[in-house]
Amino acid sequence: MFRRKPPQPLSRRAFDLLCLTVGVVLAVHAPHLPLWLSAALALTLGLRWRQHRRQGGRAPFYLKLPLVALLSGAVIFYYGSLFGREPGAALAVGLLVLKLLETDTPRDARVGAAFACFALMAALLFDQGLVATVLVALGLLPALATLRALEPAAPTATLPRELLPALKLLAAALPLALLAFVLVPRLSSPLWGTGDAAQARTGLSEDMSPGQFSELLTDDRPAMRVSFDGPPPAAGKRYFRAYVMSNYDGRRWTRFDSARAPAPVEYHSSLRYTVNLEANSQRALPALDLPLEAPDDAALGADHEVLSAKSNNDARAYTLRSALDYHLQVQLDSQQRQRYVRLPAGFNPRTLELARQWRRRYGDNDDAIVGAALDLFHNGGFNYTLLPAPLGRDPVDDFLFSTHQGFCEHYASAFTVLMRAAGIPARVVTGYQGGYWNALGNYLLVRQSDAHAWSEAWLPGKGWTRVDPTAAVRPERVSRGAAAAVEASSDWSPNQWWLGLRNRWDVVNRWWNQGVIGFDTLRQRGLLTPFGLGDTDASTLGLLLAIGGSLFALLGVTWALWRRPSGDPARAAMHVLERKLAAAGIARRPSEGPQHYFSRAARALPTQRAPLEHLMRMYLDLRYAHEVPPPEPLKEFQRAVRDFRPRRMVK
């Protein structure tokens, strides 16, 4: 009766490499996994590795099902669902770690390595930057080394020597991967609907309340990169308008949607520029204050907001024209005036009384009232901090008369309330201010931490006038950027040196975003335009991909045939060893077999008995255990012969 052959047990080296592979996957996903889950999975991985080294075999069966249930329950409890980018990635990484509990055969290890490669790819859903992509690519090395270690004739070597052939395989596959990247037809939309909530991506939204910007102002990720047709504007002119907020309920500012045409603007000159905006799940297209137009797929609002027709879930580029010196809406009708001076009843009584005192003191001089408010912020003991004290029911009263601590949104909100209480039309504007001018790439880098809020007050004869009350407290916030407002440091310090180095590195990131992440359907279709071909359709791209793939396959076959060793390489390596031993006085006799010769050499060189016996085992295995010597053991024997140095005995 035919009996099925039991599966071959997994070698210790192959299991170690698989554990390394899973550990790399866990490390790549750790930044977006909850800390408790990363720690629990790392502990499970370590315990399983230790248990396999001590006892071998699989983990007890009664542990697997409860752990899978516990993992699923924990993911549902934390994320609220098993579906979506974050919970899906957490579940996949957790199942990969638990897969090790039942891994004890080469087949299990192959499945685990393949699953690890999929989990590595999933990490690109969170970050497609250059560094993240390189880390994911390098994460493939232990997976490839694991697959090589599962081959029947795979030699045991040190970890660097295990990873080096995998690196060669990865390098050999790179040209074909580049060909596929360029020629595989692009989809008009991503396969996964993985958009984040708006607040989680940028912090900018269509409303503003105290404390909302605190996390955003410590977020160092790039928000956009701006290239100008000419010299960049001065630091004090680098205000990028996103949202204009007119409605106030006593704590929160919100936008006022209006179908009116853009307010009239008077200006003498304009500046043209291109914005490369990172994905942010918002509709607003930040524009240098004051935008005069909108891109084709966006609209210029009544308050000169530039709003896209849909959320910006992908990085995009757009070109705009703005006026830096302007008069916006010099005439304001009574209905609009009423809207911009409206305040909710029953909030901030001390603030309202202070504004009335200013009105009685300065009469119709609105400029003097604006100056009085700025003087209050400058000389009233106010501090700029990202960790302000919490505010109560009357947030502006608490801020102006009690805490005296806050950042841009506190100052903009308080100033706007003061102006409205004094009868001056005012509103809040949010967006970005400042940025780092990258002379290497000739563009302005604006980070999320450059998010800012300021006010606009309507003044007779001037129209809507930008007033930045934060500048009255910390002028360096406008002149030197957001970092200077948080910490006072010298012009050169390790921190400043690091910031400069990081900002210069952004040139590479910009190239990556434009050339790789921004390689969309439109650019792909125009790929062959320089060669005289017009719009490249999917069938043309498929034909080019088939031709290119065939050429790479032909090149690989040619290389393999050219590198195929001629003659008997094992015998050639043995001749080298014989010459080395002969030089030490141990020549091989014409009728002497290899085993007898190695034994005699070991007796003559007792201090080198161990390496000689190892060489003997390798040579006998190559010569008699295989019809054709396997390439890896052959290479190991050749390296061992090359490294062997016989030492003469002193008599």
Describe this structure in words.
This protein has 651 residues and is α+β, with helices and mostly antiparallel strands. It contains 24 helices and 18 strands. Strand 3 and strand 4 form a beta hairpin. Helix 22 packs antiparallel against helix 23. The protein is elongated. The chain starts with 11 loop residues before the first helix and ends in an 8-residue tail after the last helix.
Tags for this model:
single chain, alpha+beta
Give the structural class.
Answer: alpha+beta
* Unreliable spans: 189-202, 488-494
Cα distance, first to last residue? 64 Å
C-alpha Rg (nearest Å) = 35 Å
Q: What value does the average pLDDT take?
A: 83
* Total number of strands: 18
Task: Give the percentage of residues in beta strands.
Answer: 5-15%
Oligomerization state: single chain
Largest sheet: 7 strands, antiparallel
Cα shape = elongated
Estimate the helix proportion, in percent. 40-55%
- How many individual helices? 24
